[in-house]
Here is the input.
Amino acid sequence: MTVFERRLDLPVSPEEAFAWHERDGAFERLAPPWESIRLLEKEGGIQVGDRLVLRHRVGWLPVTWEAVHTAYQPGRLFRDEQKRGPFSSWIHSHGFEPGPGGQCQLYDRVEYRLPFHGLASKVAGSLVDKKLRRLFAYRHRITLQDLLDHKQHGCRNMKIAISGASGLVGSSLEPFLSTAGHEVKALVRPGSSREGIPWDPARSELDLAALEGMDAVVHLAGENIAAGRWSDRQKKRILDSRVQGTRVLAEGLASLQNPPKVLVCASAVGFYGDTGETVVDESQSSGEGFLPQVCQAWEEAAEPAKRAGIRVVHLRFGVILSPSGGALKRMLPPFRFGLGGRLGSGNQWMSWISLEDASASVLHAIADQELHGAVNVVAPDPIRNRDFTKVLGKVLRRPTAFPLPAFVVRTLFGEMGQDLLLAGSGIRPSKLLAGGFRYRHPELEGALRSMLGR
Here is the structure.
């Protein structure tokens, strides 16, 4: 039996750290984004007899893993064991030991045996150890950062509704809020298989009774702007999905007897258009073109909530980086094959934010009662496309010698390619910085290494 153990000091009590692991969303928070992991079944939580079944890949081979919890000591220990999976034996103990000053130490102890033990240990033992080190370094980093964020904001047991909960930000935000102890409800459209608050913005339908007494509403829903070329029909879908949905939600919230204290609405740095060589902040007025028009109408649609006295925050997201979706997911295959390169001249600004910081910014907007209006959600400093390309190549250890000329981008993607790939947006997050927002990933290389397990 091989033993792997890793320890982490946490600035909270054993009971608080244990509670974080026991709440809904902990599995999703701890699953590394560079791994292809899909939860197939889940029965219960972490108490004895509770089980989960997941599917992941070992190389190119899909593997089913079934684990059952076999020990549970509230505030101190829980343990899971593999019943079906790639190991001959796997026992994982999660322990929480009291420390000085009301703090604690978390330890993960894994006892495992590889199949064909003797031969496998010689061939694959070091690879498994390396994989475990990457995995638990990530898990411990997420655990610490989440607990620090939750402790910093100090708001507990809120009722929060989210639209667009299945999107890139929503699928990260929901477990982030749930593990903090908040009650999270998703707004779900007709035909959805999940439970939640029914709404159909195309028909101006919304279950208002279910929104009574919510502390906060987060509105993330909207048509994917990078789904394809921008035909007139697609442009209308992009605009209508944002304006109509926001208006239905804002008017509905304004009519409630017990409305939420805050409405946090997604927007985008596309509001500013192509800023050229200039780096701008929230004081800059709207730019020209399709995206600025969409963003301006999108934000204006929330006015009914603002007039009703609800604090409204428009989070203008930059390019959100995650291997789970969005721009980075599309970039990774060619870059991994050594076929990546700059886009056009490569001189255009790129204002980015990690998915972890994008999710944390939502909680920051909810908790900071002085924050309102437009808030740029980007890293402290924008980066040129050519420099982004070099950093991604460095992290992946791949050359980046295959640029995509501007005329090819325009030929392949039309107006969408010009506005999203060749135009530059140099954006500074003045309000986040002034409000003391704690970045997990203020610089690009560290962000990419964290989310790619490098």
Remarks:
- The mean pLDDT is 91.
- The chain has 13 helices and 21 strands.
- The longest strand covers residues 61-73.
- The two ends are 28 Å apart (CA to CA).
